[in-house]
């Protein structure tokens, strides 16, 4: 009668353990992490000189920014880097004007301005960098 060595395991047990570990690793690195919601400007809301609000924050694609502001005097336009620098929304820029806008971040750099003349130039603009598609850091 064949005798199994003490402390050993059968090949099927080892295969089961290895498969379980692989599944757990896969789930750890490929599952969707919950997204976060950030209120732009915190309690001050979407207001002038907001550019430093992103300092110390880590964003990822899928996170939501909430823009709270007085809709009778401001808006939010999603623009590209060139339009951010020039403070001009293009005809293809998506604009929001509810005063309680929720905008989902996309991968890459995201730029927002108030497109009311003079507002962006006076500091009502925001750029968020380091948007990661994958929420895991290695």
Tell me the number of helical segments per DSSP (H or I, 4 or more residues long).
Answer: 2
Can you count the beta strands? 7
Name the beta content range.
15-25%
Overall mean confidence score, pLDDT: 83
Order of helical and strand elements: HEEEHEEEE
Low-pLDDT windows of residues: 27-31, 134-138
* Radius of gyration of CA atoms, rounded to a whole number: 24 Å
Q: What global shape is seen?
A: elongated
Across the major sheet, the strand order is 4-3-6-7
Largest β sheet strand count, sense and barrel closure = 4 strands, antiparallel
Measure the end-to-end span.
50 Å
Helix content: 10-25%
Describe the model.
The structure is a single chain. The chain has helices at residues 11-30, 81-86; strands spanning 37-39, 64-68, 76-79, 94-96, 100-104, 110-113, 125-128. 19% of the residues lie in helices and 20% in strands. The protein is elongated, with a radius of gyration of 24 Å. Residues 27-31 and 134-138 have low confidence and may be disordered.
For this entry, give a set of tags.
138 residues; alpha+beta; 4-stranded antiparallel beta sheet; 3-stranded mixed beta sheet
């Amino acid at each position: 009668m064949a005798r199994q060595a003490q402390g050993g395991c059968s090949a099927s047990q080892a295969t089961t353990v290895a498969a379980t570990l692989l599944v757990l690793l896969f789930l750890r690195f490929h599952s969707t992490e919950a997204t976060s919601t950030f209120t732009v400007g915190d309690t001050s809301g979407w207001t002038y000189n907001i550019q430093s609000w992103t300092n110390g924050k880590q964003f990822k694609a899928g996170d939501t920014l909430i823009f709270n502001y007085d809709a009778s005097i401001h808006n939010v336009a999603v623009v590209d880097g060139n339009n951010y620098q020039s403070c001009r929304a293009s005809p293809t820029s998506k604009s929001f004007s509810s005063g309680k806008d929720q905008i989902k971040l996309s991968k890459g750099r995201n730029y927002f301005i108030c497109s009311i003349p003079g507002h962006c130039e006076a500091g009502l603009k925001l750029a968020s960098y380091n948007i990661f598609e994958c929420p895991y850091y290695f």
